[in-house]
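Technical appendix A lists one of the benchmark inputs used to test multi-chain prediction within the project. The record comprises two sequence entries:
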Amino acid sequence: MNILVVEDEPKAGNYLLNGLQELGYSVSLARDGVDGLHQALETAFDVIVLDVMMPKMDGWEVLRRLRKEADTPVLFLTARDDIADRIKGLELGADDYLIKPFSFAELVARLRTLTRRGPSREEEQLQIADLQIDVLKRRVTRAGTRITLTNKEFALLHLFATHQDQVLSRSLIASRVWDMNFDSDTNVVDVAVRRLRLKIDDPFQLKLIHSVRGIGYRFDTQP
Amino acid sequence: MNTRRHYSLTLRLALIFALLAFALLATLGVALYRELERELIMRDDAALIYRIDQLRNLLNDSNTLDLIKTKPELFQNMLGNRESVLSIAAPGQKPLLTVNPGNIDLPSIPPVPKNHELTLADVHHFPSINGVPFATVAASIDSGDLGSLQVTTGRLMTERTSVLASYRLSVYILASIAALILALVGYLLVHRGLLPLRRLARHAQGIGVGNLAERLDSHGAPKELLPMIDSFNTMLERLAKGFVQLGQVSTDMAHELRTPINNLLGETQVALQQHRSIESYQQLLASNVEELERLARMLDNMLFLARTDPASALRQRQELSAWDEVERIAEYFEGLAGDADISIHAEGEGVIWAEPMLLRRALANLCANAIKYGAPRTELEIRAVPSADGIHLRVSNQGETIAAEHLPRLFERFYRVDESRERSAQSNGLGLSIVATIMQLHNGRYRVSSEAGVTCFELFFPRRED
């Protein structure tokens, strides 16, 4: 995946560049709006991460000019948490936004969603190592043993299983499983993951759910 | 700001005074003038009739007739001025006597028959001969030898006209002077009367952030200004309170920020003291992330509370199934409650007219509290009860009773019942104030009761208005 990051803040630009490169993406960094627009028009990127508050040319202007020529998906970053700002961005043709401060895992998840091409076909049967999930019948077995899950436990497992190898942040999990789109002060997600582990991981040798400290959880056959 | 021009109350009142005075005096003057005019006309008419009556008597005497023929100047003198007209003539003949020094054109009028008494109604008025009213009367007279004679007399009302004209002028001049005086007096009085207002304005100007405790002085102010002063002072009271609260919130927030920042700073500095293993650096960074997430959450909450635009916050209000929402919250907290050995009982029906994310946030905050303070092996109850004008959502738990003195303050920012016990990473003292803000945004109500070990938070969402 080919990503352009337009960010004037030096530290933020650097960590976005490094972080995304480490995940195996090819990343270009522009330090201001003029350069950003120039690069965006020169090269075909899969997705653009665009900071709004920049000197010389702000993100809105970059977006406005870019949209005249290309429809590359754009995710904008804003430090201002007001609704008018977000609406403005989306009206100008942005595809998604994140409010600073945001978690890096969240950014990666959003970028993946933006670049996913075509509707992903819902798998009816999922098989991860010796774990089998029958999505339609909502039946889970591991190593031939039937495991009974509550509705939300199943939803959580399904989310993990369809996002293998990806680090999922707590707020992403809360929003996908319970439709709670805000940072709750509680550790509901941790508790739910622990309970799920109790059923699908603890009795078995191979662990599937891994904690990634400070970020969230990863579902993977590799430790 | 108002773009219309501001008028001066003083000037306006003075002008109104002047206009009223002029109108009043002018009306009075006109009424008196009419009365005077009528009186004068009547007197003039009576004089004419009196003259004819006298001639009727005189002309019965043949000596008088001779006298008329021989010495007509006598009669001219008798009339005394140039405005009177007298003519005596037999019908169809040259007049015996014509006294008309002013050469006035006599209009011909029918004479009053001989035996009729003359009345005021017999006087004919002509509106104007050369601009001056003219009154005339004619009568037939029996003069013995000469038979029937016709006497016509009249008078041009020059004198009356000039009297009335000067009267009119006086009225206008007096009314104008009175209006002028009243305008001046009115201006001065109003100007003086508004003095307390200017004093208040000066006083109000002096009140700023530094002396919000000061109040406007109602001493010596007119009664009409008292309500204004009162409401102004009440407003100051509210402002002062809000200001103190705001200051308190800033202070509290700064204190809240201290803990995570202190952890970040301390842990990082200690870690940098010497070389360490990769694992301990990872541990440090992960710990930093936790503190930073805590800071981000607090920031998010503070910004949420500071947002004051209800219109945009409520743009996405929907009619939500109370059952779905209550069930969702119950499922969300199922694990957490299970850990605390608390069971959740959720039930409800009806619809909630709310912005879904805000509603869920409010309910989640209440439930998180309820689980935190609930005693083990008890039940957390989430209940939705529809009523005629909306729906009540109740979240109640069993645990320690909250002392009554704390209840009204629970929804304040950073308020904690037990200062030392509750300052933890999980709680930042904003949860309930966010609930309060969400309810205010929805024009709803919130309250809390705590009795006999049961603490119940109740939210009321009004139903959708058409």
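Chain B touches chain A through 39 residues (CB under 8 Å). The radius of gyration of chain B is 52 Å. Comparable benchmark entries are summarised in Table A2.
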